[in-house]
Design brief:
Layout lengths: L3 H16 L5 E3 L20 E3 L20 E3 L21 E3 L20 E3 L20 E3 L20 E3 L20 E3 L20 E3 L20 E3 L10 H4 L6 E3 L8 H9 L3 H5 L32 H7 L13
Parallel strand pairs: 1-2, 2-3, 3-4, 4-5, 5-6, 6-7, 7-8, 8-9, 9-10, 10-11
Length: 335
Amino acid sequence: MMSAGGEQGALQVLDAVERDERQTVLNLAHRALFMLPPNFRPLPHVRALLLNDNQLVMPPMELGRMAQLTELALDHNPQLSMAPFDLGQLTQLQRLNLSCTSISVLPPDIGALQQLTHLSLAQMQLTALPAELGRLCQLQVLRLSDNRLARLPEALGELRELRWLDVSGNDLHALPSSCTQLRRLTSARLARNRFERFPPELLQLPQLVTLSLRGNRIAHLATPLDGMAGLAYLDLRDNRLTTVPEHLAHSRTISLLLIREGNPLQDNEQAVLVRSRHLESEQAGPESDLVGQREAPVGRLPTRHGRRPATSQPSATATAAAAEEIDVSVLYRPL
């Protein structure tokens, strides 16, 4: 079932891709599709299948016969409540996006996708993650924001190639101890969770450059961040801090410290900030939250093969919201 316009457009795209084997991207996004067209048949030369921003209710049965795929986009199908049945057969996948669906359970065979480098599972209904996630030995980007996760599996520490981790907007109190093994991690988004203390596992990650702990319940930060030699951006806004630790105010590595907004700082602590070299950065406003980065709003991805176009002038609210999220521009580079 699909709209007349959507069906006609989808059939035209299918016909064009079928006749030209040089076209490796099958873009059926934004077609109001409830299912694939009746005459759809897997094309062996297609490497990217884009079904985002439709009205899919069930995952396409034909995916099991498309083992050559390197990219699969099923995001922004809000009625989609099941992961693809034959997901484990797509062993060549490098990029998988299931964000903004109603999927609540990931199948264990996701661990078979050992070529995967980018995995986006944001704004779903996930309450737990399978231990098999740790088998994704090539994974570099993992986005899990705005789910219902109360804990992360110990297997997370097996993702030794991970560079970007976004678990914003969950119910996390702590990180697994295995996170100390994420030695290549450069960006962590832990905003809008339930952390009451600075996660000690992060202290052993010298490559970490950007860290957001905004919107948690941290009241004290006494431990120096000596082990985080690469940390340049730290967001501690909207916590319960009453003092500014000296090791933060006069850090030689942190170039952007956001701490004043949303914390009940004492009056004398404001003077500490005035004396610190971070004052100018804090006054720069929300657009300076991620230096050099311009991100899409939460749940959106950059325009590529029919994805949503970003607004040319994002509002201050959208920019501030995006500051809590991962730099999604790295999720979809040209293959």
